[in-house]
Design brief:
The complex is a heterodimer. Chain A is mostly beta strands. Helices cover 0% and strands 59% of the residues of chain A. Chain A is built from no helices and eleven strands. Chain A has strands at 3-7, 10-14, 19-26, 30-38, 45-50, 56-59, 62-66, 70-75, 84-92, 99-100, 104-109. In chain A, strands 2, 4, 5, 9, 10 and 11 form a six-stranded mixed sheet that branches. In chain A, a hairpin with a 3-residue loop joins strand 7 and strand 8. Chain B is mostly beta strands. In chain B, strands 2, 4, 5, 6, 9, 10 and 11 form a seven-stranded mixed sheet that branches. In chain B, strands 1-3-8-7 form a four-stranded antiparallel sheet, with no helix packed on it. The model of chain B has no long low-confidence stretch (mean pLDDT 93). The chains are: A mainly beta, B mainly beta. Chain A binds chain B through residues 4, 31-32, 34, 36, 42-46, 49, 51, 87, 89, 91, 95-103, and chain B through 4, 6, 33, 35, 40-45, 48, 55-56, 58-59, 91, 98, 100-101, 103-109.
Chain lengths: 110, 115
């Protein structure tokens, strides 16, 4: 069974203080690893898809990287508006579902 | 271009009543997925449907839960005889194709409260 573990559960940063979120996974035949952002009371908002080890993608202050066992979401010089829960999910094997981690709650203080 | 739409956004039911949750996928999307998010838990897959077909319902509870995606109209997630443990946020996602290269886009969710 596919498993996703995210750490830390919660992270507080000062504005401008860079850091990384971790997503460790076990999956039978990775077909894609996905990062979403979720604001309180809203649905997950798609950020990135990564398909193979060594792949990297960037969007504004966010950069996602992938190895064979984990993915990192690097946040450079975060702003208060980056505060949200960041979700990692994998799609593996021959099924059609995304398996999600519990998320990392990021708070960026001004 | 409208995103995934879900209604109602909030639904309150008493124990034993029925709950019907609706999902309209993004324009051009014919694949719909339902997920449930319990308090302090991650999103859990429930069911994957295409028009008029249930493709994978491996995450659906065996009793009281059913889903459909008719030829015309929205996808419906139906919960019969609700219990307090059904209180959760239910999210619908849609994709154009059922491939990992095709993103699942999520709706705003329906928050079900069972009294």
């Amino acid at each position: 069974e596919d498993q996703v573990t995210q750490s830390p559960e919660a992270l507080r940063l000062q504005e401008g203080e860079s850091s990384s979120l971790n997503c460790s996974y076990t999956v039978s035949g990775l077909r894609g690893l996905f990062w979403y952002r979720q604001d309180p009371g809203k649905g997950p908002e798609f950020l990135f898809t990564l398909y193979s080890a060594g792949e990297e993608k960037e969007k504004e202050r966010l950069k996602a990287t992938l190895t064979k066992k984990e993915s990192f979401l690097h946040i450079t010089a975060p702003k208060p508006e980056d505060s949200a829960t960041y979700l990692c999910a994998v799609w593996g094997g021959s099924n059609y579902k995304l398996t999600f981690g519990k998320g990392t709650l990021l708070t960026v203080n001004p | 271009n409208a995103g995934v739409m879900q209604n109602p956004r909030h639904l309150v039911r008493r124990r034993g009543q029925e709950a019907r949750l609706r999902c309209s996928p993004m324009k051009g999307h014919s694949h719909v997925y339902w997920y449930r998010q319990l308090p302090e838990e991650g999103l859990k897959f429930m069911v994957y449907l295409q028009k008029e077909n249930i493709i994978d319902e491996s995450g659906m509870p065996k009793e009281r839960f059913s889903a459909e995606f008719p030829k015309e109209g929205p996808s419906i997630l139906r919960i019969q005889q609700v219990v307090r443990g059904d209180s959760a946020a239910y999210f619908c996602a849609s994709s154009q194709l059922a491939r990992s290269t095709d993103t699942q886009y999520f709706g705003p969710g329906t928050r079900l409260t069972v009294l």
